[in-house]
Every structure is written in structure tokens, then in C-alpha cells.
Give the backbone structure.
Amino acid sequence: MSTSSVIIIGAGISGISAAKVLVENGVEDVLILEATDRIGGRIQKQNFGDVPVELGAGWIAGVGGKESNPVWELASRFNLRTCFSDYTNARFNIYDRSGKIFPTGIAADSYKKAVDSAILKLKSLEAQCSSGQVAEETPSSPKTPIELAIDFILHDFEMAEVEPISTYVDFGEREFLVADERGYECLLYKMAEEFLFTSHGNILDNRLKLNQVVREVQQSRNGVVVKTEDGSVYEANYVIVSSSIGVLQSDLLSFQPPLPRWKTEAIQKCDVMVYTKIFLKFPQCFWPCGPGQEFFIYAHEQRGYFTFWQHMENAYPGSNILVVTLTNEQSKRVEAQSDQETMKEAMSVLRDMFGSTIPYATDILVPRWWNNRFQRGSYSNYPMISDNQLLQNIKAPVGRVFFTGEHTSEKFSGYVHGGYLAEA
């Protein structure tokens, strides 16, 4: 059993970034233990319908502002192919269950009411937190299909319209979809190449060990011992845990001695967002593809039921691929059923919008981030009104064990650049 200066648990963007910073500062005997057979974490490419699609993170959010997003700088440096995504027209492409698009005026009015209601709710929550009393005025909950659809768009995709988000304030409001055959993950491989030995795109450095599922971290005054599922034992002076907040909330990883109560309570209080992009391949395109029509919305009586759609023609012309995004409870529901059942549900929705004569999908791809024991969700989701001490406790070290990841970023939690900039 050899001893390293630092063991890093997890080879997502925060783990790779932490290792790179350590090596650049002279700590070369680092060891990265990754549970899967690849680096990238929640950045993952898979070929589908002859094109690469991003199962997890798919956009570079926050571009075009006064400050430069470091992930955008990486993308520019390594010539990552991207396409500009404009969400603003999505609210005007809302279909009802009969296939009719809601008139622009009705959609705009409904959207303004939803924004005003969300702002009122936020102010109400702020008043409660500051005074300890229940605010007198509370906004009504969305009830109609279009109200539910807009509520889903607003809170699951466009929260910046309600509450200023540092990503857009600091880096700009533009977003770019990654559409590169190497995948978003190539940025991590390019970063790794700068401090790990590689050959023909493969990492051959023994400081990165794949398929090592860490189950226990034991620390003492003298150092830290890490034990993996296959019986391997590693020793280090310090450990950096870059596992997701979902994994920290699960029982995959145990600590000896147990983490203090203030630490475990903070970890459990952080919400986990589940974000599922379902890909459907068709024999031909039957949906509108003109300017301002990349995204379209389905208004259903159930909030978030196959609501948010996107075609991939801008990224990959002729691919004939649609993507529908589900979140949270809908994501968990779909993960628990067969892909065939999900295909039936999606086709029923599409035939509501575009008619019963549209062709049936030839293939489907359903990521399962919630049931993946090495991820347990997509990203952290701190409440709109939360005590800053919560985040401080989540990121605080415990003895020789340090924590990093997008969930430890004070300004950019939930984003790729949050994981990249996170400091252990």
C-alpha cells in the first residue's frame, strides 16, 4: 500500500480540476479514484442516431457578458463546436392538447403573470425569513394547462427572470449547446492531458484509477485510509471528495469516524435536481424547424408531463432527433418504467401536438441519473431563500477530508463552471 499526498474521489470536472491545480502547484503524487470506467461524471456523451448526444450537462451557460466564463474559454481553446440556443421564443410555441398553438398575446400575458407571481412569492418568502411571520399576500398556484406549462418553463429553465443568478449576471445571458463529435467531455480529457500521461487520447497515467468504487474513508491524526468495493486499500495525507451531493446523501460512501452532525445535516438539507433529457429518433422530420422554433412546449393538466421539447436540427441537420426534458418526480417516474412505456407516452404527446399520422419513433434513449448510484441526481438545487451557513457547512472540511463539486460553489452551484471553479 503506497501513500499519496492527496487522494481525490471522483473524476468529474471538479475532481479533474482539483488534481490539475494540485499538480501545477507541485503536489504531483495525487491519486484519482473514479467509480466508473471513464472520466466526466455528469458530463457524458453517447452516440444516438448516428450523432453524439449529451446525456448530462449539454450547454455552456453564461456567455457574452463583461466577464469571461472559464468553461467557455476552455471550449474556445479546444475548438469545441457549439450552437447558440435561444429560449426566449419557447413561450410562444405552446401547444394545447388539440394541437393548436396558444396565441402570442395569451402566451405573453400568461408568462408575465407567472413572472409577477413568482417575484411576489419570492418577496413573500423574504418577508417571512426576515420577520418570522407569515406574509399576508400569497400568490395563487397555477391551475390551467398553460399556467402549469409556463410555471414549469419559468422555474425549471428560466429562474433568472425571477431572481438574479450569478452565472448570467457575471458571465452573460447567452447559452450555447454543445454539438461536438468529441462530446462535452473532451474538455476534461484535454485538461487531464496537461498533467496526466496520455497516448492517442487514452489516459495511461497510474495516478488515475478507474472502476474504483470508494466505500469507506477512515481518517486519523496521521492520515487517511480509503477502502474500495473490490477490497483495494489506499493511503494518503489528505482526501478530497468530489462526489455529487446526491451521493453524499446516499449510503454509498461512509466516513470513520462519522461526519459531525452539522455536516450531515447540511448535506441532507440540500435539494437534488433530477434533470432527464429523453432522446427520440424518427425516420423523418415532422415538426417546425424555422427561426425561433428550436424549442416548443406541451400544455398538459399535469405539471411537467413531457412539457419541454427541443429539436436537434440546429445542432445536427438531418438527424431527425427530438429531445424532451423531464425533471424531478416526472424523471423518477420515467426512470422506474420501461423505455417502451416512455416511448408510448411521448408518442401520445407528440400526436396531440402534430396529429395522429406522424411516424412512430424508431429509437429512444432514456438516461437514468437518479437511479445511478454514482450520481443520484443531476445537480444541487439550493432553495431560493436559504441560509448561507448551509453552503458553508457543506463545503467545510472535516479534519483531513475536504469537499469539492458544483454543490460547494457559492456563486455557481448547479453549473459546469461551478464544478470547474469549486475549491476544496
Remarks:
- Residues 47-182+275-365 form a domain with the Polyamine Oxidase; Chain A, domain 2 fold (CATH 3.90.660.10).
- The chain has a mean pLDDT of 93.
